[in-house]
Amino acid sequence: MIQFISFAAFTLLVAVISYLATRKTNENSSEGYFLGGRSLTAVVIAGSLLLTNLSTEQIVGLNGQAYKEGILVMTWETLAAIAIIITALFLLPRYLKGGITTVPQFLEKRYDMQTKQITSILFLLGYVVIFLPIVLYSGALAINTMFGIPALLGISQQTALWITVWGIGIVGAIYAIFGGLKAVAVSDTINAVGLLIGGILIPFFGLKEIGNGSLLTGINTLITSHPEKFNAIGGESASIPFSTFFTGMMLVQVFYWGTNQAIIQRALGAKNLAEGQKGLLLASFVKILGPLIVVLPGIIAFHLFGENLANADQAYPMLVNKVLPSYLLGFFAAVLFGAILSSFNSGLNSSVTLFGVDLYTAFFNKSASEQQTVKAGKKFGIVLAIIAMCIAPLIAKMPQGLFGYLQEANGAYSIPILTIIVVGYLTKYVPAKAAKIGLVSGVTLYIVSQFILKPYVFGAQNYPHFLHVMAALFVLNVTIMLLIGKFSPRATPYIQKYTKEVDITPWRFVKPASAVIGVIVVAIYLYFS
After folding, report:
1. How far, CA to CA in Å, does 71 sit from each of 80, 299, 364?
2. CA 275 – CA 281 distance, rounded (Å)
3. Residue (of 97, 115, 112, 99) closest to 490 by Cα position
4. Can you spell out the DSSP letters for 52-69?
């Protein structure tokens, strides 16, 4: 009973604080609803970024991979720090200079309206078919395993999954649709503190379990018993071969942290460039500590449970159940619930933003007021949430390797979008038709490659890693766009205008701080290689 009381109390506390912090924000304007009134500070941006990223598909999925492969999967965390630095130094200044609310808005200015609309639709399809359902499913799996919901309620695993998915989805939708970005960001910040504390407690108690009460003995036992699990350099047969560091890995990271609307929207809501850069770099530094939460517990679970788990994605929630004291289980479940909500409502809020700002006024009501746009976006969010909640339980039959599947499936839209953004910023004469061709060819070729040629023609064992495929298609599509730009250029060069929405004076320590973080990342790989 104490677990459920602490769970409900912490969840209610977050809701109350979020309400009090946002009640004075004007949610009837596009800027107020979608960007929190451009008032977000560094700490709020960093907290929201981390919680949006660090959810159950990350915690459960990566620990599941670590259970099978060890520390090499920390690449998804540590290299993210470099991608965030790139975003802070190069992308965010350009975004804020242009005063954009969504990434596709830049594409409209750089190319044309159709390019923006196609990109918004790709984002929305990716969210509703891949991202949102997987967040709901992985969250429901964690909650059901930690609390033993099927046995507690005397129902089947599938029924419990449906109940938990809809419970998470409804609460998340209320936050995202009726609270706007600022409510999401404030709740994220509170939960970020709780998740960092709770997340570190899991390996702490896990190592003490291994060491019979001694933390140092537990660390020594784990390292000496499984030295193969502490090699950060993966072979070509690993889920993340070392060669992918130099091909598609960094492309995926830059897309996620620099162009993914659900992530970058937090930085777009910064009160100025300096606050945005400080928030990004603070998040970058904390990401270096990420493996303590999303990798080490998986290795501890391997030591405690051996190879006896039928589903590797259950390693983390089973470890929590085994090592966390009962008086902390409710608190941690509440924090984990907050992380689930964070990813779900952040994706949903971004979907509402994309629809309201980029599609509603173009296709449904060209003369819509800001209040009408926000209202239409909220209605769309409700429909999107219902669709995601219907799809999520069906993922239960998905093959093992939740996080790897998520990354591979995202490639269908991530690399094509990254391609046209990179070319858009680095060139002046590449025309709009090149962007549309790049989007269509990128999506089509990737789907054919990964979902037709790989399983049905060559076989998964004989096919290049999906990150290598992403890199090859990125180079191909960039080449195609540059050739079109050479032989059929724009009539006039593209020049970005400063809209003066916010001050774009850089943080004076942005480069030294970035250098320090980069050195730390390199040192970590040298130590574990």
Report:
1. 15, 8, 49
2. 10
3. 112
4. HHSSHHHHHHHHHHHHHH
Listed as own residue / partner, the contacts of 225-231 with beta carbons closer than 8 Å and 24 or more positions apart are 225/303, 226/70, 226/299, 226/302, 226/303, 228/70, 229/66, 229/69, 229/70, 229/71, 229/299, 229/302, 230/70, 230/71, 230/299, 230/528, 231/70, 231/71, 231/72, 231/528, 231/529
Helices (H), 87-212: 92-98, 103-110, 113-126, 132-147, 149-153, 157-210
Q: Is the dihedral of CA 362, 366, 368, 370 positive or negative?
A: positive
Distance CA 245, CA 468 (A): 10
Domains of the chain: 2-403+506-528 (1.20.1730.10)
pLDDT truncated to tens, each residue of the chain (529 aa)?
566 666 666 666 666 665 565 555 544 444 444 444 566 788 888 877 877 777 777 788 889 889 989 999 999 889 999 999 999 999 999 998 888 777 778 888 899 988 988 888 888 888 888 888 888 888 888 888 777 788 878 888 888 889 988 988 887 777 656 554 455 556 666 666 777 788 889 999 999 999 999 999 999 999 999 998 998 887 777 888 888 988 999 999 999 899 887 688 778 888 889 999 999 999 999 899 888 888 999 999 999 998 878 778 788 888 988 898 877 877 787 777 777 777 777 777 777 777 877 777 777 777 777 677 777 877 887 888 889 888 888 776 655 456 666 777 888 888 999 999 999 989 999 999 999 999 999 999 999 998 899 888 888 778 888 999 999 999 999 999 999 999 999 999 998 888 888 888 999 999 999 999 999 999 999 988 7
Please say whether the beta carbons of 87 and 95 come within 8 A. no
C-beta separation of 288 from 207 below 8 A: no
From CA 309, how far away is CA 315, in angstroms rounded? 7
- 494, amino acid identity: Y
Whether the CB-CB separation of 4 and 330 falls below 8 Å is answered with yes
Q: Hey, is 483 helix, strand or coil?
A: helix
User: Tokens in use for 430?
Assistant: 């590449």
Look at the alpha carbons of 159, 160, 165, 166 in this order and tell me if their dihedral is positive or negative: positive
State the DSSP string of 211-251.
Answer: TTT-HHHHHHHHHHH-GGGG-----TTSSS-GGGGGTHHHH
Token digits for 318? 């089973």
Q: What angle do CA 136, 314, 57 make, to 5 degrees?
A: 35
